[in-house]
Q: What sequence folds into this?
């Protein structure tokens, strides 16, 4: 291991290391961040939810967006897998269906960054307790 | 490359380790590998989460799910349900004792709601054996700031301004202490970390060292720069093997990064740390005794002055601070004195870590802002008294402190209010008692501890405490007189005035505070020869209710002293004669009562 020689080096080191702890830091205050829940039940996984989640995480990193990704169980929209729920702070959560890599990019670039609605929204008509 | 989607934090503190947390971690690692998830899920062994009552704790991130009392065999279920299917494993969640609902997120648990974690900021969050994790949370930036931008005097001023006071018990202002040592010129000075945590039931310092050892190393280096010392020594008791191990790992990693050693961060400042092991004598927590023990001499205190700041380790100026005090230093430097001074009460700034123990629902390690009330700590964080019993007293400050009662529940606790109430902050042990505790017996327990731990150098402590203990023994055996109570007060006053060190001077406190707050109970023991809590064995008698007793004879079989025999009385509706206890033979073990299925035996 190389020795740390200055504050600048220490800071650079922190920058590099921070991504390892990113997931933990974010979970300290998830309500202040964009939260994406990916439905990851059997049908979701079969429809490619894993790959989409992977892709979306990378895309969010590229766009320098602070997003908390969580896996969740079946949301019940088996006809529209993969489905994800996106919650932007201060807004009601929105569920998107048939999310592939392309749509995932759209959701991040248009909805999350610019508040433009994109296709594929599933109207949610139930109350959660 | 697949991205890590879930972090599994598993407590690796001494408490959870004792309940198989190592096995939980290895099971996680093994099963995740079997299921091909090792690249998506990271398992981290952290320090203490504080919620020891419900350990071992496993926390899932990013969704903050808090699993309690996890057993190695539960791991597979957590992986299958939580990690693969995204469903929480409900029966492992914390059950709110009040509304009987499962709480998934630790943020919504009463135990954590009122806490503010500064000294414990990294405990239960990072892997204490990985310096990288400490650095990525801003670790070692305080020492970098100090070396790069501040003069030693500025560091001392900043700490003084923050209002930080010693967390070991007496509450001496830390900045002032540093200033005193900095003033003294010498070719060698020492920074000493007092990790000789000795109060019964206290584990604050151990948990900090186990959960965040790097914060102590960084703080000691900062102190070294401020007072002009290049050597740091940690005096730690040998019965803390895990804390020792974690410190050793952290010191080795810091050396490798050049954050300890020569020319730290290119500043020309040299600092290194060594560990010194104590054999677990309580008196060695006193700074002069601690220094003697480190020098290889008997762990006996000496008169102050000279203070260690003038003549300490090897007769060189030394600065001794407690572990928790050090844990606060780096964050004061990075966030500023004003930030720290904005937390807490008027004269006590910041937070205090307490080890909550005794008859309380949520036993564990907590950190609250100074000025939090005892009621909040006991009922909100602690979840109230076990079994819904009645609160009787809370002991703070260990053998140097005292017992507070119901009337103190709304006292905002800080150094001064606790002192005014006849107790003290101490290092942070907090033992909660319900109505099954006898206060005379409690006073006796603490005094027994002091007698055992007294080094014997000065006679007030060695002989005075012994005489007090004899009187307490007399009282709990039913032979006390009212004169004895007065004698206790007299002796206490003399010991307080004349003992050599802090141990002796404060040793009568548990007796005095119980005399003040529970006078009736002492009088009951002396005059009525009764112990209302049923603790003092000599004062109680087991009695068989002859009308309830069906004469089965089980008690007589259980009795090891052959004190129970048949009478000639047969109660109405019963077929066999009832039993009776010969109180002259009875040894009061209680075996008869615990074996009786008919509730016929009671203590009178």
A:
């Amino acid at each position: 291991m190389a020795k740390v020689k200055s504050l600048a080096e220490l800071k650079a080191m922190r920058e590099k290391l921070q991504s390892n702890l990113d997931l933990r830091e974010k979970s300290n205050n998830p309500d202040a961040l964009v939260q994406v829940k990916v439905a990851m039940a059997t049908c979701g996984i079969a429809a490619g939810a894993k790959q989409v989640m992977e892709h979306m995480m990378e895309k969010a990193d590229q766009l320098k967006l602070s997003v908390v990704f969580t896996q969740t169980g079946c949301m019940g929209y088996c006809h529209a897998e993969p489905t994800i729920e996106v919650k932007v702070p201060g807004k009601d959560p929105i569920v998107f269906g048939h999310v592939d890599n392309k749509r995932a990019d759209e959701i991040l670039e248009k909805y999350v960054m610019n508040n433009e609605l994109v296709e594929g929204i599933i109207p949610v008509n139930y109350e959660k307790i | 490359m697949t991205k890590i989607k879930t972090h599994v934090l598993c407590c690796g503190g001494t408490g959870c380790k004792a309940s198989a947390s190592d096995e939980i971690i290895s099971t996680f690692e093994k099963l995740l590998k079997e299921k091909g998830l090792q690249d998506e899920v990271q398992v981290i062994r952290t320090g203490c989460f504080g919620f020891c009552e419900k350990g071992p704790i496993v926390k899932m991130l990013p969704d903050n799910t808090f699993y309690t009392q996890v057993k190695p065999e539960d791991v597979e279920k957590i992986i299958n349900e939580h990690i693969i299917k995204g469903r929480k494993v409900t029966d492992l969640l914390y059950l709110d004792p009040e509304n009987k609902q499962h709480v998934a997120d630790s943020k919504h648990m009463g135990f954590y709601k009122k806490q503010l974690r500064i000294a414990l900021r990294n405990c239960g969050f990072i892997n204490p054996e990985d310096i990288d994790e400490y650095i990525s949370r801003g670790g070692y930036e305080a020492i970098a700031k100090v070396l790069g931008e501040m003069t030693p005097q500025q560091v001392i001023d900043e700490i003084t301004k923050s209002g930080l006071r010693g967390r070991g018990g007496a509450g001496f202002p830390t900045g002032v202490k540093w200033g005193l040592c900095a003033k003294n010129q010498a070719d060698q000075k020492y920074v000493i970390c007092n990790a000789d945590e000795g109060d019964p039931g206290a584990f604050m310092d151990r948990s900090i060292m186990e959960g965040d050892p790097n914060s102590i190393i960084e703080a000691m280096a900062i102190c070294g720069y401020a007072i002009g010392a290049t050597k740091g020594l940690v005096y730690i008791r040998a019965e803390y093997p895990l804390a020792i191990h974690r410190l050793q790992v952290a010191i080795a990693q810091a050396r490798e990064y050049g954050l300890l050693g020569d020319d730290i961060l290119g500043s020309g400042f040299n600092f290194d740390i060594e560990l010194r092991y104590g054999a677990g004598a309580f008196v060695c927590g006193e700074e002069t005794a601690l220094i003697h023990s480190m020098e290889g001499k008997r762990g006996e205190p000496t008169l102050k002055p000279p203070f260690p700041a003038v003549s300490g380790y090897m007769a060189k100026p030394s600065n001794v601070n407690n572990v928790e005090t050090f844990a606060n230093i780096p964050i004061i430097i990075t966030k500023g004195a004003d930030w720290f001074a904005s937390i807490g009460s008027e004269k006590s700034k910041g937070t205090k870590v307490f080890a909550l123990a005794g008859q309380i629902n949520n036993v564990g390690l907590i950190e609250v802002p100074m000025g939090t009330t005892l009621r909040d700590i006991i009922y909100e964080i602690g979840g109230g008294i076990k079994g819904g019993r009645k609160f009787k007293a809370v002991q703070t400050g260990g053998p140097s402190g005292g017992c507070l009662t119901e009337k103190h529940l709304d006292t905002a606790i800080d150094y001064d209010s606790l002192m005014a109430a006849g107790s003290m902050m101490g290092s942070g042990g907090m033992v909660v008692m319900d109505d099954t505790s006898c206060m005379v017996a409690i006073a006796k327990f603490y005094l027994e501890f002091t007698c055992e731990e007294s080094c014997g150098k000065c006679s007030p402590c060695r002989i005075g405490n012994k005489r007090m203990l004899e009187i307490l023994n007399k009282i709990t055996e039913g032979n006390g007189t009212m004169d004895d109570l007065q004698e206790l007060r007299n002796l206490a006053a003399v010991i307080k005035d004349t003992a050599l060190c802090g141990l002796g001077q404060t040793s009568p406190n548990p007796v005095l505070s119980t005399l003040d707050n529970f006078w009736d109970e002492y009088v009951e023991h002396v005059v009525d020869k009764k112990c209302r809590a049923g603790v003092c064995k000599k004062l109680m008698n087991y009695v068989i209710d002859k009308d309830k007793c069906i004469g089965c004879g089980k008690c007589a079989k259980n009795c090891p002293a052959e004190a129970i025999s048949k009478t000639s009385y047969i109660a109405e509706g019963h077929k066999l004669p009832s039993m009776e206890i010969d109180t002259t033979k009875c040894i009061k073990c209680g075996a008869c009562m615990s074996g009786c299925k008919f509730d016929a035996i009671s203590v009178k």
Summary: The mean pLDDT of chain A is 84.
